UniProtKB/TrEMBL annotation:
This is DNA-directed DNA polymerase. It catalyses: DNA(n) + a 2'-deoxyribonucleoside 5'-triphosphate = DNA(n+1) + diphosphate. Gene3D superfamilies: 1.20.272.10. It comes from Candidatus Woesebacteria bacterium RIFCSPHIGHO2_01_FULL_41_10. The keyword Chloroplast does not apply. GO terms for biological process: DNA-templated DNA replication.
Length: 224
């Protein structure tokens, strides 16, 4: 069995790649079998399907939920199954899972530009100039609409951590980083920014204002 793992924090591009792989395999008349990590043994699902002599691509679209010991089984039995396995990880691959994959597994990574993370980390009152500079750099190669969506999710995380991180699955270092940034805002300020961001998104889609201009004006208003 050959294993391909698609991952990265650029979720849109990673998902597009997964869809392209599946479409390409379908065009070759292969069978597509979606694997459910919570529906019994992964090894059992693979073996039961492999009894039929047909080219098969197994797909796990939520591969982070696959227990490491199940992947250990795949690693130890790759030579016994004549098929392909496509694993999709939203974000990065956990270290324990990567150790459990076969040595010859193929990895395809889709990472966001570092400027986007710098923009999100720099978003706080008084840092208008830095954010405007980063926006100018980002818009040369990336969609501003995508940046707005990323900022919206980031702001929701800031509110979440500010009112209590119950249920948040982020790692401790990320929670600490979010908390330090959230302390620069009061809760109402964050909610007002999110509302303005939603208006920018709607106005840009209806042609009332460009996404870039709307975001620039919002930065000037809230980060002055």
């Amino acid at each position: 069995m050959k294993v391909v793992a698609v991952f990265g924090d650029d979720i849109e591009k990673a998902r597009t790649r997964v869809s392209a792989i599946i479409a390409g395999v379908k065009a070759r008349k292969w069978e597509i079998v979606h694997i459910d990590p919570q529906n019994g043994s992964l090894g059992g699902q693979l073996v039961s399907q492999s009894l039929f002599p047909v080219e098969t691509l197994y797909v796990a679209l939520d591969a982070k939920k696959i227990p490491a010991h199940e992947l250990d089984w795949i690693r130890d039995h790759t030579s016994e199954i004549d098929a392909r396995l496509l694993l999709y990880f939203a974000g990065n691959i956990p270290a324990d899972i990567k150790k459990s994959l076969p040595e010859d597994a193929q990895y395809e990574s889709f990472s966001l530009p570092k400027e986007i993370f710098a923009f999100l980390d720099s978003f706080w009152p008084g840092n208008k100039k830095r954010c405007l500079e980063l926006l100018l750099t980002i818009e040369k190669n990336e969609s501003v609409e995508f940046l707005i969506a990323m900022l919206g999710r980031h702001l929701r995380d800031l509110i979440w951590i500010k009112v209590g991180d119950k249920g948040m699955s982020a790692l401790p270092w990320r929670k600490q980083k979010l908390m330090r940034q959230a302390e620069r805002f009061d809760e109402m300020k964050l909610r007002n920014i999110i509302n303005d961001l939603a208006d920018i998104d709607l106005d840009s889609k209806t042609g009332k204002v460009s996404a870039t201009l709307g975001l620039e004006l919002m930065l000037i208003k809230h980060l002055k």
